[in-house]
Amino acid sequence: MTKEYSVPAGVETAVDGVDLEIGESEFLSLVGPSGCGKSTTLRCIAGLETPTEGEILIDGEDVTAVAPNDRELAMMFQDIALYPHMTVVENVAYPLKVRGVPKAERNERAEEAAEIMRIDDLLEKYPGALSGGQRQRTALARTIVHDPRAFLMDEPLSDLDAKLKVAIRKEIQRVHNRVNKPTIYVTHDQAEALSMSDRVAVMNDGRIMGLGTPDELYHLPGNRFVASFIGNPSINFVSGSVTAHEGDTVVVDLHGTEIEVDTVGVESAYEDIEIGVRPEHTHLARGGEEGHVEGTLELVERIGDRRLASVDTVEGEIRILVPDERTPAQGETVSVRFDTDAIHVFDGRTGEAVAHGELSKRHVENRSSDPGADRSTA
Q: Residue ranges of the ABC transporter domain (predicted)?
C-alpha cells in the first residue's frame, strides 16, 4: 500500500509500499518517530483515507473502496471523546444505536462490555464524574461493544500519566486475550509496543524498517535504524573493521580485539562497518581488565537498582548500565569493555545488519522455544 498527498512542492509520500499480513488473533503494533506514516497506515485500514496504490483485504475480501462503517472495524483514537450529556451505558451503547440495534439489545451488550472493562458499577454516571482511568475504560468498552472484525487503536494512551498508562495497558492486553480478535496498535512509545505486542513493525519515512517479535527486534535488529530506535537506554555504536571474511563468518577488529562473528546473509564487501553494543553488554573495566576504548566518565544516573554511566570517548558517548555499587567519580578516566559475544555488526554504507553475536542469537532461540514466554523484552 502507498499513500501520497499533493503538497505545494509536489507530492509527499506518507506511506511507501507497506506490505503487512496480520493474523486472526494477533496483536501487532506500528511504532516509529512522528511523521513516519504509522497513523496514516491505520487510517487507510479504517477507511478514513484512500490509498493511492495497493489494496486492503479483510478475510480475503477487498475492502479498499468500502465505506468505513461497512468494514466492521472498531477504532479508538487518542482523544476518547465521550459524550458529556450521556451516561456511561449510553456512551458505550452509542455505536449500536447508530447501527439501529434495538434499545434492549444494545443496553444488554453495553452492560456486557462494561463488565469486561470492570466499569459495570458506573453505568449511570456521566463522564464528568469519572476519573481518567474510568473514562479510558469506558472508551475501550465502547470500542469492543459491537464485536468488530478487528480493533484499530491510534495512540490511545498518549495523554495519560505513566502509572495510568501501565494500568490501561494491562486492560488492553486482558481484553485482547479475551475477545481474541486482530488488534493493530499505533504508538510512538516503544515500551508500549514491546510489552503488548505479538509482533512489532518499526516504521520510518513511510516504510517498514523492521518486522518481528519484540525479542527479535531487540536482540537481532535487521538494520541500524531498528537497533537505534528499539531499546532504552539506546544502543552504543563504535567503529570497527573487518580483517577477514570466510564463508559464513567475519572476523571483526574491535579496537585491537579480533572477534569471529556469524554473518546474516547480507551481501557486502564490508569495507565500512559499524558495531552496535547494548548498554547492558557494556562494562567499566575493573581489576586489571583490558578495555576496548578509554574515555572520561561524564555522568552517572540512577535507574532502579542500577546506574547509567555516560562516558565521553573518541567514539562519542558510550552508555553503560552498571550495578548499584561504587562507581568511579565523575571526571575520572575509565576503560570501557564490550561483551564481544553480544555485538551487532552493520554495513556502514547501507545500515543493514551484517552479523550478530552468539549471545544475541541464543537469547532469541531460547525465548522462541519457551511456550510460556510473555510478550515483554529485555
A: 2-230
